Amino acid sequence: MLSDVEIIYRSALYPRMVTSGVVAPERAIADFTSEDDEDGRRVYTISVGRGSLLPGWPEVHDYGCRTAIESNVERALIKQAPLKRPGDTVHYLGSFKLDVSAVLGAPQKFLELAVLHHPRPNLEEHCNIVMRRNAIEARRIEVSAERTSILVHLRLSLYEPEAHICACDDDLIDTFGNVTLTLEQVEPS
């Protein structure tokens, strides 16, 4: 588990986090993935990069570009065909900072949060924010409300967004070069 004094980075990815030309915090934090942990318990995870292994923005952006590349490799394997750019592919647009202490400070009565180092191929810096049910009995609506509170807390805890276009995406600058990262909530159009 990461220390509460560490910083993590949430990569902003095109197209799934972009709404009306903006990557807003609610889109950057909303895509927890459901999976089973080593004990067979249902957990929800969201990928982040470990700040102690990413000493500056150049390294953060390199990690984000590699994250998009690895995602596209996985997509191509699933599709079993070449991917069309940009329609089938994922692209890194920058990152938001998030303190581990903010993650751990989210409301946690029925759910537990942790930030775990979880290296992946070509992504040694990869970590997961993990959300799982604890043993306290609760109605589904109570757990759902707490999950929503956690998402709001995490969204409000993001800071210092920094945009970036990877060198491998220079040919797509007209597609997403004007996308901005913001800390403001964006209303759907």
Total helix count? 5
The biggest sheet amounts to: 7 strands, antiparallel
- Categorize the overall geometry: globular
Order of helices and strands: EEHEEHEHEEHEHE
pLDDT < 50 stretches: none
Class based on secondary structure composition and strand pairing: alpha+beta
Distance between the termini: 39 Å
Chain-averaged pLDDT: 94
The number of distinct structural domains comes to: 1
Task: Please sum up the structure shown.
Helix content is 29%, strand content 29%.
Q: Can you tell me about this structure?
A:
- The protein is globular.
- The protein has one domain.
- The chain contains 5 helices and 9 strands, in the order E-E-H-E-E-H-E-H-E-E-H-E-H-E.
- The protein has helices at 25-29, 57-79, 100-104, 140-157, 173-176, and strands at 7-14, 22-23, 33-36, 42-50, 91-99, 111-117, 126-133, 159-163, 180-181.
- Strands 1, 3, 4, 5, 6, 7 and 8 form a 7-stranded antiparallel β-sheet that branches. It has a two-stranded parallel sheet with strand order 2-9.
- The longest helix has 23 residues, at 57-79.
- The protein is an alpha+beta fold.
- Helices cover 29% and strands 29% of the residues.
- The mean pLDDT is 94.
